[in-house]
Amino acid sequence: MKFDTIIIGGGLSGMTCAIAQAQKGKRVAVVTAGESNLHFHSGSFDLLGYQQGQPVSDPVAAIAALPESHPYHRLGDVEQLAAQACQLLADAGVRTQGDAHHNHFRLSPIGKLVPTWLTMEDMFSVDSAEELKGKKIGLVNIVGFLDFAVPYLADALRDMGAEVTVRSFTTPLLENARRSPSEMRATNIAKYLDDDNHVKEVADRLNSITPRYCELLLLPAILGIANNRAVKLLKESVKTPLRFVATIPPSVPGTRIQSLLRRRFQQLGGTLLPNDTVKGGGFENNRLKYVCTEHLADTRLEANDFVLATGSFLGGGLSSDYYSVRESVFGLDVELNGAASRVDWTTDKLFDKQPYESFGVKADNQFRVSKDGTTIDNLYAIGSVLSGNDPQHLADATGVDLLTALAVL
Questions:
Q1: CATH 1.10.10.60 holds for 2-97+256-407
Q2: Shortest CA distance to 290 belongs to which of 277, 281, 299, 279?
Q3: pLDDT digits (tens, 9 = 90+) for 164-191
Q4: FAD-dependent oxidoreductase 2 FAD-binding domain: from which residue to which, for each copy (predicted)?
């Protein structure tokens, strides 16, 4: 089978790149193993959240101070790419609010305000903690749902000056789901509540338990696994304004993002090869000619260009043992950013910056990768498989995913 572009990996970076290429009229295929880091998604997209441990106010301006090895320095006009990313998400049905020049704050699952660039429109966010002073908030959870840390959230909101009332509710449907502990996960609950009658039942319960003085209800993000229809219906049916807060994974907002991006890609004529992995390929004259997958072992997938979007260690794009770090599919060249010795990969304190977090595939200014010191002219790397970014300490992972995906080819 022959395509213009084959993308290896179906997470945020892979699907963004696939949609961008399909919009240009190219024949695009995506090979994806299935789940991705989107299943851990917060409902927000970070461009650049921190520098030297301090929150960043203007991400675009702050990028200039990043190390030269950071992928952002190879992008060109970051502000323009950020605008393109917003539009691509919106066209796919992922509606967000935010500004690349002004970070706002999302509420983490344990109650920390985290600086971020874009937040899905139904998720809770504030421009600053000052907005919470004196705010009368109802914090509501489902009885038996343990992936929403109500005590932490309530204490954190009160510390920021909010007046918090804690409530819980259930319905016959949700009470029945509690009989199986595995069903009380966010994505499973979202499937139960993907019915208008069940959503209205939840709305009736919320209306009955909400104090009249509440200005805002905060609920766990457990509605809208494929689209925002159930979310919209609940908001219309509840008398008090409400917003959602990310839960412990699996993430309903992330699953929705993945579903919407895949749908958009297929609407544009793209070919999705799900539940499959690329096992290798054939190189000739410094070009990748074809790849083979686990399930299509006897079929060569050929393309003019290939894009590697397999993620870092968590996504399986990188692997390691006690002696080396490897790119998992093709054995591409990897940059360790000066940490040549094994003892230099980590530091003693768990929460300190860990050198291995910035390891990744070596790429030139066009994001072309190399193998055994030779540049592969038609194989590109995007997202967290690239070296140079530090998602834990910079809060830049989704920004790198989106913007590098739009910059290649």
A1: no
A2: 281
A3: 999 999 999 999 888 876 788 999 999 9
A4: 4-388
